[in-house]
Write a structure and sequence with these properties.
- The complex is a heterodimer.
- Chain A has five helices and five strands, in the order βαβαβαβαβα.
- By secondary structure, chain A is an alpha/beta fold.
- The chains are: A alpha/beta, B mainly alpha.
- The interface between A and B is medium-sized, with 17 and 23 residues.
Chain lengths: 140, 152
């Protein structure tokens, strides 16, 4: 059984970025899925924090996680904490409409690498993705 | 002017008016940019999802406000959700109505909330009609053999 740390690779050995969209709104899931697809990023969508955690079972790995904050069952803050506690070192970007400094702080402290205010645009996504490339030299 | 040019002119004017009158904002044009040959109905799909959301959330808000003891946090949570999705599709007036609504939730003002609910309901109904008109114009252009012009 392959270890959980291996990234998905193409036949020529180049890594393809894989993303996970975590949002309870179907409107947002649809938009974020398309935004990522248009940038050539393979992605899965789930509807809450618990599903995000479950998506990491069996050694599944994502380079990028777009994490909404307010979700039922398990919210973004809790899910981020859980994933970090599990040893997940993916780039986790909080994507939310919350704008109070205190709320942002709490979310960042849960273990985010980046934070973007909704609505997400192609430009915001590109700035997040640059961070993945910057940290790609770090062994995962 | 041939039929296609006429329809295209109408489309451009109508789209411009939607932006000018604040019905939609730049986020809506972001959605249009995402549409391509592999997904030619993307905007219609997302907008339909949004209106389904509106209907459901407005119903939930109405129910919550009918209670003997209104749970304003519950109402606020529905408004917050609607604010989120309206912002994502660029439904500017609906979004602004939600922002106003939240202040009444915070103040636990039932009358104010009911007024806002009416406002939200109205804004989403009007927007729905406007966008349906826009999509009809698009279909007419395509049926006539033309292409949809980009409106910057």
């Amino acid at each position: 059984m392959r270890g959980g740390e291996d990234k998905a690779v193409n036949k020529d050995g180049r890594s393809k970025i894989r993303a996970l969209v975590v949002d309870d709104s179907m409107v947002n899931r649809t938009i974020h899925h398309k935004l990522l697809e248009n940038l050539g990023i393979e992605n899965q969508v789930v509807g809450n924090g618990k599903e995000a955690v479950d998506a990491h079972s069996s050694g599944n790995y994502f380079d990028l996680i777009l994490m909404d904050m307010d979700m039922p069952v398990m919210n973004g803050i809790e899910a981020t904490r859980r994933l970090r506690a599990m040893g997940v070192r993916s780039l986790i970007a909080g994507v939310t409409t919350r704008s109070l400094e205190q709320e942002k702080q709490e979310f960042m402290e849960a273990g985010l690498d980046d934070y973007q205010e909704k609505p997400l645009t192609a430009a915001k996504l590109v700035s997040i993705i640059h961070k993945i490339n910057q940290s790609s030299s770090t062994p995962r | 002017m041939d039929v296609i040019s006429q329809l295209q002119r109408q489309f451009i004017d109508y789209t411009s008016s939607l932006y000018r009158e604040g019905y939609v904002d730049d986020q809506f044009s972001q959605l249009q940019k995402l549409q391509d040959e592999s997904n030619p109905d993307f905007v219609v799909e997302v907008v339909s999802l949004f209106f389904d959301d509106c209907q459901k959330l407005v119903q939930n808000m109405a129910q919550a406000l009918e209670q003997q003891n209104v749970d304003f946090r519950q109402v606020d949570s529905h408004v917050h959700q609607l604010k989120g999705s309206s912002s994502s599709v660029g439904a500017s007036r609906v979004k602004n109505a939600c922002i106003a609504f939240r202040t009444f939730c915070e103040a636990q003002n039932r009358e104010g909330c009911l007024r806002c609910l009416q406002q939200v309901n109205q804004e989403y109904s009007v927007l729905k009609n406007k966008l349906q008109q826009l999509f009809r114009l698009e279909q007419q252009i395509i049926a006539a053999g033309g292409s949809i012009p980009m409106v910057e």
